[in-house]
Amino acid sequence: MNIAVIGLGLIGGSFAKALKHYTTYKILGFDTNEQTMQKSLDEKAIDGIAGDGSIGECDMVIIALYPKATTDFIIANAPKLKQGCIIVDTCGVKRAVVERAADVCARCGLIFIGGHPMAGREFWGFDYSLHTLFKGASMILTPSQNTPEQAIRTVAELFYHIGFGKVVNTSAENHDRMIAYTSQLAHVVSSAYIKSPAALEHTGYSAGSYKDLTRVAKLNENMWTELFLDNGDYLVQEIDLIIDNLKAYSEAIKSKDEKLLRSLLKEGREIKERIS
Asked: What's residue 124's pLDDT?
């Protein structure tokens, strides 16, 4: 099998390295940054460059770009790909990508499967990519009702082979609804939390809880801005809900309502214990 990886940053670079490490497939890569491409060749993360000619030989294309860049790439390159080629994106939102990409791929005889690897680091770029990044992680796929079962199996088997611990199939709609809570809200909260003036004086006063809550504040603002806006409807619902919950705690503390505060804390503990 010939596989192209488009975008060789943290996620794309990790896909390329994992594919090279765990398979014997021919791996081609492309990145708009020439230094990144050269480094990926030097480190043998890819076997060659996915150019206009060679990309047409690929059986699968994994796209690791921002949402708009992903759909722009598909629109521009779909006619160059061979019939039956499987295209998998890795964007953190699915509706915005699937709505544009699926029709284009179908018209060109390609198979598009939305994907989202639930893995990452607080760093980005090829230099931080790892062939072990996906070890034990979940890979979410959003195939349509028209996606061939064999293509879904092929993609799932490949992802298990390169280290993923679980492959979940769902709809683009459900993906975006859940990710607004499990991922995007956490980044918003972390970014807002670190803005307290007290953060500048945290040394000596912080431990595990502080580190846990601030870790993802170190984010790529360009990527996350696009992701947040593409999923704004679901994300705003989650932000408004957590604001309401925080207000409840604030009011209980302001009014020194010991019974209410204990009840709020107990409710949170019991939910955590139930879902753990």
From this structure: 83
Nearest to 117 by CA among 136, 97, 102, 103: 136
**Please, what sign has the CA dihedral across residues 245, 251, 253, 256?**
negative
For the chain, what's the residue count? 276
What is 2-170's CATH superfamily?
A: NAD(P)-binding Rossmann-like Domain (3.40.50.720)
Interacting residues of 257 by C-beta distance below 8 A, sequence separation 6+: 251
Name the CATH superfamily housing domain 175-275.
Answer: 6-phosphogluconate dehydrogenase C-terminal like domain (1.10.3660.10)
Split the chain (276 residues) into runs of 10 and give each run's mean pLDDT.
96 97 96 94 94 89 97 95 96 94 94 94 87 96 93 97 96 97 97 94 87 92 96 98 98 98 98 95
Contact (Cβ atoms closer than 8 angstroms) between residue 168 and residue 140: yes
In angstroms, the Cα distances linking 18 to 22, 158, 174, 258 are 6, 11, 28, 53
Phi-psi label, residue 62: left if phi above 0, alpha if psi -120 to 50, beta otherwise: beta
Q: Tell the residue number behind the tokens 């005889």, with chain if given.
A: 109
CA distance 43 to 143: 33
